[in-house]
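B., you asked whether I could sanity-check this one before it goes into the benchmark set. Here's the sequence:
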Amino acid sequence: MKSIIIASTSTLHEGSYLEYLLPTLKEHFKNCKSILFIPFARPGGISHNEYTEKAAYAFATINISVKGIHEFENSAEAIKNAEGIFTGGGNTFLLVTQLYKHNVMQLLSETVKNGTPYLGTSAGSNICGLSMQTTNDMPIVYPPSFQTLGLIPFNLNPHYLDPDLQSKHMGETRETRIKEFHAFNAIPVLGLREGNWLDVKGDKITLRGSLTARLFKQNQDPTELETESDLSFLK
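And here's what the prediction gave me:
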């Protein structure tokens, strides 16, 4: 049975890395002594080793060890043998490119669907949808495909921001960008605000956190979904 946490962000304002999620992660990874970390989304400024150390520091507080996928000679075997998997944030275009480069996109999808517990934050959440086309990230590299893990039957927009009515900025809002996506695509899109996450158990998808999430569907007005809402109806 699928067991997935899909979080908008890894870090809340004035909080430490993964701090707000740790009680949830302790339960989520309760059967794991160690997890595999995928640091491929970071484009620079922090190495894969440094990024993995950051994740390891957070998970050490709940007595779980972490090893980066880059530390293994065979990425596919690392995924197959993982007790749990965490894909961190960064740039979604880079993450998707690297997963295809290492030929593990399909394998990662199958592994999680077969029950290996998974955590995604930011870019690691973006790839849980049907495609990465509703990311906020710049296309700094060109992936061979926009198709991603397909762990849920819709797309995500992590870090979703509502329009600031006091702002004089006249550029496009997140809502505008998602509507542009829906001019050509029928896939529903869920705008996940900071501090929200999806709890996926089998086919049941539950919205968690303290805020509402904004649901966009083609040719329909967006709607607000209350926390604890069941999103399993989305197809």
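One thing to flag: The CA atoms of residues 45 and 148 lie 25 Å apart. Otherwise nothing jumped out at me.
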